[in-house]
Amino acid sequence: MPDPVVRDAETGWWHVGTDAGVRAVLGDPARCSSAPMGALDRVLIGADPPEHAPVRRLVGAALRATAVPDDRIAAIAGKLLYPVVRAGGGDAVQQLARPLAARVTAAQLGLDPAHADDLLRFGDAVADVADFAPADAEAFLALDLAVARWAAQRRVCPTGDGISIVVTGARGQANLRSGQVRSLIRLLVVAGIVTSARLSAGALLAVASDPGLQAEVRATPALVPRVVEEVLRRDPPLRFILREVVGEGLEIDGVALPAGATLACRLDGANRDPAAHPDPDRFDIERDESHLAFGAGAHRCPGAGLARRQAKVLLELVLARTTQLGLAGDVSWERDRHLQGPAAVPLRVSNV
Ligand code: HEM
Distance between CA atoms of 186 and 144, rounded to whole angstroms? Predict the structure, then answer.
């Protein structure tokens, strides 16, 4: 049973841990402000209505216009997979999921794939900042400088890539100042990398560690999206998102919440709420309940489709290019305050 609403003495946050409670908070932006998400960015993810909507439209348009098609994702994944198959195995996190997420992000934003390692460093640095411990301040500064350079280049010479669309649309459509534009681009650079990498690695782990599931999915590849969905449900990469109570009178799951209270909407708790997901700890691809891994309401993740497609295409390709997939050693799992997912998944593959 998840805890309904509990105050954490250390942080002072109120943790909301049920599916219904989290949906109630995320569906009520007038009384539950996104301001605490402003630690990441104040222009989109930390903005409230009415300022949020025009920026969201701009980002939605940029992501749609620059959507990376499945065959491009497969081409990127194929290059990463080749040495793993040749070697008979490798680490699904470092050799497949993380570089795939970084290269797909580069493709979407219009950055040289040679920047992929930098993007991973930036993603990790910002994940640390979100965890309130900026372990790699140098990487954070480097991200700022790189974003300023990319934005300036596209302002002079737009190319139709993701950054160009944001830069050119920002003034007219969303009335943003240049510092705000840079904040938005920083968010787009980092939001999808560390999260999508954890999802893709989780999907590979699920299949590599369960021979029965693997046989089922090999026999019916159309089940791959269900595996991806169940990884999102059982182990959402982002464990919680924050909101702040505006005004008096908010009650969630029978608990009165004071004005100014910080709410931690536990996506990991809600996704294992037995009232919404019977037998919640069981990995079960037959479920068709909706989950909260991508949030809900006005801020629901606009990159959800891309993240799902990356994991799906990678898993399909691994299954198509191998006859057997297993684990060659111990898996390690990373769970910090904000994020969770596999840190190392040593795969053994054969294709005979
Ligand atoms: C498995 C991968 C991903 C997970 C688990 C995830 C999770 C989330 C969640 C929970 C939110 C809602 C935040 C809130 O309500 O405060 C969000 C927002 C956002 N995500 Fe994702 N995300 C993923 C991938 C991506 C990708 C690939 C992109 C970029 C293409 C992306 C871009 C964004 C942006 C820009 C927002 C802010 C939207 C807004 O505030 O309106 N995400 N994400």
Answer: 7
The number of the ligand 1 atom at minimal distance from the alpha carbon of 52 is: 41
Question: In the chain, what's the furthest Cα-to-Cα distance?
Answer: 65
Ligand 1 atom at shortest distance from the alpha carbon of 55: 41
What would the pLDDT profile of 296-312 be if each residue is shown by its tens digit? Answer: 999 999 999 999 999 99
Q: Which atom of ligand 1 lies closest to the CA of 243?
A: 16
- H or E element, residue 269: helix 267-270
Q: What is the CATH number of the domain that holds 102?
A: 1.10.630.10
Which residues span the domain enclosing 172?
A: 5-350
Instruction: Give the number of other CB atoms < 10 A from CB of residue 114.
Output: 8
Cα separation, 230 vs 232, in Å, equals 5
37 pocket-lining for ligand 1 (C-beta < 6 Å): yes
Rg (CA), the chain: 20
The verdict on the CB of residue 302 being under 6 Å from ligand 1 is yes
The total domain count for the chain is 1
pLDDT tens readout for residues 188-238: 998 999 999 999 999 999 999 999 999 999 999 999 999 999 999 999 999
State whether the beta carbon of 166 lies less than 6 angstroms from ligand 1. no
Give the three-class secondary structure for 312: helix
Q: Answer whether 197 contacts ligand 1 (Cβ < 6 A).
A: no
Instruction: Give the residue, out of 163, 294, 308, with the most ligand 1 atoms within 8 A of its beta carbon, to mutate for a pocket test.
Output: 294
